[in-house]
């Protein structure tokens, strides 16, 4: 029997390899680490999380929660590990990054049907069934090969990661622990600002010096879903106060009132020794990050264990290039999965990997491809990125807006979302996937 080749051992690639192997097909999983690392990756492990340790909301009546529940029904290897290495994050599923990566790596390496190959792929394969899951930091040579083969230019944009500080360097005489609207047991550290403190911080932020981004197009394009805090701030004086620094649902115990603005810190590891600045992905120079972010009340003496960084992030024009089963229209033996396919988010990438892996195996087995209905979250997500009527395509994450409406109108949003989730999960309960 022929093998499936999966290129890239991120979340999408590991899910694709695991899904194909689960159908009895041998898999060659090719990963360039530890031979070579992308600008944003540091670990030699698979499934390295870079931008955040949060896998978003856990509630099934949320878009992110529904997506993860559907993935569990499809045998997700990432969620089987994530559910065992959680850290407190209110209503979200957040994980210890290192434990998560190590756990998925062990599961993939111990799978007898998966053969790990360490090398850098620089050209699009021209034979065999292959899943391209090289992620948003696809090697430039391979990205160029994809562009040449597809006859169209891939779209490129940039992504940014947030700084991480040590928990014991946060001044808890100023900061306080709480989750919005008392959701959870104080899973976030909150640094409150009054109006004067906010204005000083805002002015320093928008005038701070940014770092150069080398080896990229001079016309910087930033994806909305992971925008640097300094870029968002320049849209207006209240842009970040109504965005990542919104104070709603919180009260400063020192004053008994809602702060003018709040910077939230989310636990980075299970020990709670590290916290990241939520929504503070940035491209400021390291010295400027230390200067400006130390102005945040409670962070004057903060010890930064990692400064924010910005890196290249690429995706293909999927609506023009991909079939509904994630295969290339030009060559159905080549499938794409993960952020390079135009989904946005860790779990969205992993979900697309599951489907690509299933369909790659189906191709080998001579069986019909699996295309999930558009009233499931995964089906709606993949339907959107392969919809050739979509113009000016941009990456998309799970959201209820991409699902078809219910037959009966439900005005209450929470009830409507619960009904949409129930409808989606009923598909999996029927066992219609063969």
Protein model, in words:
It is a single chain. This protein is an alpha/beta fold. The protein folds into two domains: 4-158 and 313-429, FAD/NAD(P)-binding domain, CATH 3.50.50.60; 164-308, Elongation Factor Tu (Ef-tu), domain 3, CATH 2.40.30. The protein contains twelve helices and 16 strands. It has helices at residues 11-22, 63-73, 77-82, 97-109, 140-150, 195-207, 229-233, 286-293, 318-321, 346-365, 377-385, 413-429; strands at 4-7, 27-31, 54-57, 86-87, 92-95, 114-118, 129-132, 155-160, 164-166, 176-177, 188-193, 261-267, 274-277, 304-306, 310-315, 334-336. Strands 10-11-12-13-9-14 form a six-stranded antiparallel β-sheet. A five-stranded parallel β-sheet has the order 6-2-1-7-16, with helices on one face. Helix 1 (11-22) links the parallel strand 1 and strand 2 (27-31). It is globular. 48% of the residues are buried.
Order of helices and strands: EHEEHHEEHEEHEEEEHHEEHEEHEHHH
Structural class: alpha/beta
The coarse silhouette is: globular
Text of the CATH class of the largest domain? Alpha Beta
Tell me the number of helical segments per DSSP (H or I, 4 or more residues long): 12
Helicity, in percent?
25-40%
Spans with pLDDT under 50 lasting ≥5 residues?
A: 214-219
Terminal CA distance: 20 Å
Task: Output the strand order for the largest sheet.
Answer: 10-11-12-13-9-14
Strand content: 15-25%
Give the number of domains: 2
What integer value in Å does the Rg equal?
Answer: 22 Å
Mean pLDDT score: 91
The name of the CATH superfamily of the largest domain reads FAD/NAD(P)-binding domain
Largest sheet: 6 strands, antiparallel
Query: What is the oligomeric state here?
Result: single chain
